[in-house]
Amino acid sequence: MSGAGSPELEVDGTGIRVTIVAASWHEQIMDGLIAGARRALDAAGASVSEVRVPGSFELPIVAKAALERGADAVVALGVIIRGGTPHFDFVSNAATDGLTRVAIDTGMPIGFGVLTLDDEQQGIDRAGLPGSKEDKGAEAAQAALATVQLL
Ligand code: DLZ
């Protein structure tokens, strides 16, 4: 269960400490993303902890704190659904730009598992839930572990 074009990453997480930093909006989809990330990290043998933040806007600052406190990598998970106001763009851009900046400034890997969606169904299709076509939480976790091995 993976997205079109996504690689089959062989990852060994032995000895790697990973913090899942997960937003709290859109609970059902978030639960799927977190479970997928955990499945992939457990399968790779990584050591896993989890921190919940209120919304995707708060992901970057808490990801940075997790890396400064000893995590070898972060998996950042969020769900942002387009509404009738420009808020979607503000939150999406803040999360994406902020996480990019944290990864580059700290030199540490962040797996990017923030879904930006037009509606809830798109999230259900991607969240590794029963009947989902894709498992974006697992993909983000595998990418984080693969990047640890490159740095
Ligand atoms: C305010 C807001 C809105 C409208 N939508 C979402 C969303 O779809 N997904 C999400 O993760 N967070 C959303 N937020 C909350 C912001 O990320 C943030 O938590 C608040 O603006 C408080 O700083």
TrEMBL record:
<feature type="active site" description="Proton donor">
    <location>
        <position position="87"/>
    </location>
</feature>
<keyword id="KW-0808">Transferase</keyword>
<comment type="pathway">
    <text>Cofactor biosynthesis; riboflavin biosynthesis; riboflavin from 2-hydroxy-3-oxobutyl phosphate and 5-amino-6-(D-ribitylamino)uracil: step 1/2.</text>
</comment>
<dbReference type="InterPro" id="IPR002180">
    <property type="entry name" value="LS/RS"/>
</dbReference>
<feature type="binding site">
    <location>
        <begin position="84"/>
        <end position="85"/>
    </location>
    <ligand>
        <name>(2S)-2-hydroxy-3-oxobutyl phosphate</name>
    </ligand>
</feature>
<feature type="binding site">
    <location>
        <position position="112"/>
    </location>
    <ligand>
        <name>5-amino-6-(D-ribitylamino)uracil</name>
    </ligand>
</feature>
<dbReference type="GO" id="GO:0000906">
    <property type="term" value="F:6,7-dimethyl-8-ribityllumazine synthase activity"/>
</dbReference>
<keyword id="KW-0686">Riboflavin biosynthesis</keyword>
<protein>
    <recommendedName>
        <fullName>6,7-dimethyl-8-ribityllumazine synthase</fullName>
        <ecNumber>2.5.1.78</ecNumber>
    </recommendedName>
</protein>
<feature type="binding site">
    <location>
        <position position="126"/>
    </location>
    <ligand>
        <name>(2S)-2-hydroxy-3-oxobutyl phosphate</name>
    </ligand>
</feature>
<comment type="subunit">
    <text>Forms an icosahedral capsid composed of 60 subunits, arranged as a dodecamer of pentamers.</text>
</comment>
<feature type="binding site">
    <location>
        <begin position="56"/>
        <end position="58"/>
    </location>
    <ligand>
        <name>5-amino-6-(D-ribitylamino)uracil</name>
    </ligand>
</feature>
<feature type="binding site">
    <location>
        <position position="25"/>
    </location>
    <ligand>
        <name>5-amino-6-(D-ribitylamino)uracil</name>
    </ligand>
</feature>
<dbReference type="InterPro" id="IPR034964">
    <property type="entry name" value="LS"/>
</dbReference>
<feature type="binding site">
    <location>
        <begin position="79"/>
        <end position="81"/>
    </location>
    <ligand>
        <name>5-amino-6-(D-ribitylamino)uracil</name>
    </ligand>
</feature>
<comment type="function">
    <text>Catalyzes the formation of 6,7-dimethyl-8-ribityllumazine by condensation of 5-amino-6-(D-ribitylamino)uracil with 3,4-dihydroxy-2-butanone 4-phosphate. This is the penultimate step in the biosynthesis of riboflavin.</text>
</comment>
<comment type="similarity">
    <text>Belongs to the DMRL synthase family.</text>
</comment>
<dbReference type="InterPro" id="IPR036467">
    <property type="entry name" value="LS/RS_sf"/>
</dbReference>
<dbReference type="Pfam" id="PF00885">
    <property type="entry name" value="DMRL_synthase"/>
</dbReference>
